[in-house]
Amino acid sequence: MITKDISKFYQFYPCNVTLVGARKGNRVNFMAAAWNVGLSFNPPPFGVSISPKRFTHDMIVKSGEFTCNFLPIENIDIIHGTGRTSGRDYDKVELFSIPLEKPQVIDCPTIESAYAAYECRLVHQYPVGDHNFFVGKVVAVHYNNEVITQKGLLNTEKINFAMYLGSNTYISTDPGTMRLLPAEIEVPVR
Ligand SMILES: Cc1cc2nc3c(=O)[nH]c(=O)nc-3n(C[C@H](O)[C@H](O)[C@H](O)COP(=O)(O)O)c2cc1C
Where along the chain do its domains lie? Predict the structure, then answer.
């Protein structure tokens, strides 16, 4: 099928959800963000697309920093909860009992139960449609050493990723589908 009605085009999902954290004064807030992406190897900036409607948006602009926290699907209540409530109405850290971890470089804490978390300094922002794309310089990475393989990969036997499918639906990964392929492929002769 081909359609020009792209308003319900959700096939760019699933996306690995991150919780974007920001701080203003004593207030720390987190929101779920499916639109997050690594942008280059060296340096390794990280990008998140955030609507100006989000409470988190202005906290990032004003503080010039943010964190990205990757939680396993076991923490789905926190993930979905921070994506369906606003810091304007609730202190989400208290509401969802989010365990905070002290930051190393910036002032905004990360989430202790994250299997990986980035501390980012805001270096660019670009308006993209009705969102703003924030590019952060990653200045520190927190990670759980027990879930990293010798090759530096996330151990899928130990981590169940929280992927967002759209429409309030989440899915995790099945380690049985993992494939290790050669870096150089043999191109078939035709
Ligand atoms: C799974 C999920 C993914 C989301 N991804 C994004 C996103 O990438 N960008 C965005 O601006 N909002 C996204 N949202 C919506 C915000 O998380 C939501 O509006 C949240 O309540 C904003 O919180 P805040 O007002 O405290 O900043 C997502 C929501 C969910 C549930």
Answer: 9-175
Instruction: Please tell me the distance from the alpha carbon of residue 27 to that of residue 20, in angstroms, as a whole number.
Output: 14
d(CA 161, CA 10): 19
**Residue 173 burial (10 A CB sphere; 0-12, 13-18, 19+):** middle
Q: Which of 51, 54, 95 to mutate to test the pocket of ligand 1 (most atoms within 8 A of CB)?
A: 54
* Amino acid residing at 89: D
| Residue 23 pLDDT > 80 | yes
Residues in contact with ligand 1 (CB, 6 Å cut-off): 17, 29, 31-35, 49-51, 54-56, 80, 83-88, 131, 164
Given a cut of 90, is residue 2 above it in pLDDT? no
- pTM higher than the cut 0.85: yes
Beta bridge partners of 166: 169
9-175 has which fold?
Pnp Oxidase; Chain A (2.30.110)
Mean pLDDT to the nearest integer, 44-58: 97
Query: Which ligand 1 atom is nearest residue 164's CA?
Result: 1
Confidence bin at 1 (pLDDT 50/70/90): confident
